[in-house]
Amino acid sequence: MPPALNDDNGVMLLIPAGPFVHGPEKTPAVAPAFYIDRTEVTNRMYADFCRATSHPLPAGFRADQPNMPVVNISIEDATTFAKHAGKRLPDALEWEKAYRGSEGRLYPWGNEPKTLSTQLQIADSAPETGSPYNILHMADNVKEFTRTLGPSPNPQVPYYQVRGGTPPWTYESVPQTWSSADTGFRCVKDPRR
After folding, report:
1. Range of the domain at 103
2. Positive/negative CA dihedral, 116, 178, 184, 75
3. Using the 8-state DSSP alphabet, how is residue 129 labeled?
4. What is the reported pLDDT for 45?
5. I need a labelling partner for 91 at 20 to 30 A (CA). Which of 12, 18, 23, 127 fits?
6. Which residues, at least 6 apart from 115, have a Cβ–Cβ distance to it below 8 Å?
7. Per DSSP, what are the bridge partners of residue 110?
8. Nearest Cα to Cα of residue 14 among 6, 3, 1, 25
9. pLDDT given at position 116
10. Where do runs of H (alpha helix) occur along 54-171?
11. Domain CATH number, residue 8
12. Residues linked to residue 54 through DSSP beta bridges, in sequence order
């Protein structure tokens, strides 16, 4: 498997198969290999998708900030984008492994906190805060959708986990139509087997 894939939506990096730990108790698990976007999906990438598919742009879309993470999209929008790109959304364990590495760091860069910007940043900035696999902005910038279901107040309405920030195992559970000015996404892709 190549260590990276390049497409119209940037670079995807390989997260190798193997054991890792997750959650506050560092519970052991094993994950197959997968590729994950190095950055969050940007306004440019999302605008290209909307032009190609006639999908509507999100409310308050900032075309003048093409390299910023796209926000104000729902998990339905993110899933549609991912499918169009031949990808999918990460599940919560994949997202956490990409964030923490196999050894279960508290932060992407290690076990000591850093002062992070509270401002939204360009998606491919701040390499010094990258994860063990060089994935950017997993502990700051925007929160990110996963395809993992979360607790729902109504069993008839699916809710999904939104990850991001610290500690990495925490999440918010939101309905599939929910959107926010501080939530975006990145995609994953399974290697050819």
Report:
1. 4-189
2. positive
3. G
4. 98
5. 127
6. none
7. 107
8. 3
9. 84
10. 75-84, 92-100
11. 3.90.1580.10
12. none
Read off the pLDDT of each residue in 154-176 and give the average, rounded to a whole number: 94
Give pLDDT, residue 115. 87
Q: What was the pLDDT predicted at 192?
A: 83
Query: Can you give the pLDDT at residue 8?
Result: 87
Q: Which tokens go with 139?
A: 């502990």
* Rg of the chain over all Cα atoms, to the nearest angstrom: 16
Indicate the SS3 state at residue 146.
Answer: strand
In three-state secondary structure terms, 141 is coil
Mean per-residue pLDDT, 1-17: 94
Share of the chain above pLDDT 70, in %: 99
Residues 6+ apart with CB under 8 A from 169: 22, 23, 24, 96
C-alpha span between 3 and 64 (Å, rounded):
32
* CA distances for 70 relative to 78, 96, 97, 160, 185, angstroms: 10, 21, 23, 18, 8
Tokens 């939104």 correspond to what residue? 162
Given CA atoms 39, 114, 105, 75 in this order, what sign does their dihedral have? negative
**Phi and psi torsions of 93, nearest 5°:** -70, -40
The domain tally of the chain equals: 1
Q: What are the pLDDT digits (tens) for 51-110?
A: 999 999 999 999 999 999 999 999 999 999 999 999 999 999 999 999 999 999 999 999
